Amino acid sequence: MKPVTVSTLREMKRRGEKITCLTAYDYSFASLLDRAGVDMIMVGDSLGMVMQGHDTTLPVSVADMVYHSRCVARGVERALIVTDMPFMSYQESPQHAFASAGRLMQKGGAQVVKLEGGEPMAASVRFLVERGIPVCAHLGLTPQSVHQLGGYRVQGREATAAERIRHDAKVMQDAGASLLVLEAVPSELAKSITLDLEIPTIGIGAGPDCDGQVLVLHDMLGLYPRPSPKFSKNFMHGAASPEAAVKAYITAVKSGTFPGPEHSFHAP
To answer: In the annotation, is 92 catalytic?
Structure first.
């Protein structure tokens, strides 16, 4: 099968075909996800928690991301590889972001880089895109800002906050982002943003109406020893193998049965 590109994902959005994404951090799981047919593999800085045992993603370095992204890239033939830019690797300036993104692509095999934040990051997104680096934006619950947000809380429930996220989504698209991750926002807000944008939206705790879904692999396989978030689901229940669980996830996303109401948030 042909490799998935950002153009592939945009065409999937146009056709109304759901996009599937899971995180991976090593060769073996990346190969498994690729064989199972996942459209995107996200090398998330969530590795700081599920692989390294930290309480947040903040300690993760660019070197960590390069290492894990390179491991994943060796196991992938079809899926699009999106690699997180970790905390302090892009916030200083567009030039700083470009240097970090260049390492992730040149040394880590990333095909798209992901960064968190809205309008303040627009200049950096534009700077990267103008120099040939595809960008995935990330709004809503942005884990690198966990201390500023006061914890891992749903974002955008109040009208002012929802309008800010909606505004930032349009700004990120206008800056040239190819994709947008929406995390832990009310389903109604995610739906309206998805309808407003030309670029695909990938939801995690953002309801069923995003163009695609992503989960942390260790949550959906029941491997993470700490509690998983409400929006996740353990697909190993009833599955004969991890690959069967991944295929069940893909089927559930493609058919629209995941996420269900129990995995979603709503505005008051």
So the answer is: no
Please check whether residue 161 is in contact with residue 203, taking contact to mean a CB–CB distance below 8 angstroms. no
Considering 92, 183, 198, 243, which one is annotated as catalytic?
A: 183
Nearest-CA neighbor of 121 among 185, 73, 173?
173
Convert the pLDDT of each residue in 220-267 to its tens digit: 999 999 999 999 999 999 999 999 999 999 999 999 999 999 999 998
Question: Nearest to residue 103, comparing CAs of 57, 136, 61?
Answer: 61
Encoding tokens for residue 30? 């990346």
Written as six digits, the tokens of 127 are: 């700077």
Which residues have a Cβ under 8 Å from the Cβ of 217 and sit 6 or more positions away? 22, 23, 24, 25, 29, 33, 50, 223
How many angstroms separate the Cα of 265 from the Cα of each of 38, 162, 251? Answer: 25, 13, 22
Residue type, position 47, single letter:
L
Instruction: Find out whether 71 and 27 touch, Cβ atoms under 8 Å.
Output: yes
Three-class secondary structure of residue 114 per DSSP = strand
pTM (2 d.p.)? 0.97
Separation CA 97–CA 89 (nearest Å): 6
d(CA 62, CA 58): 11
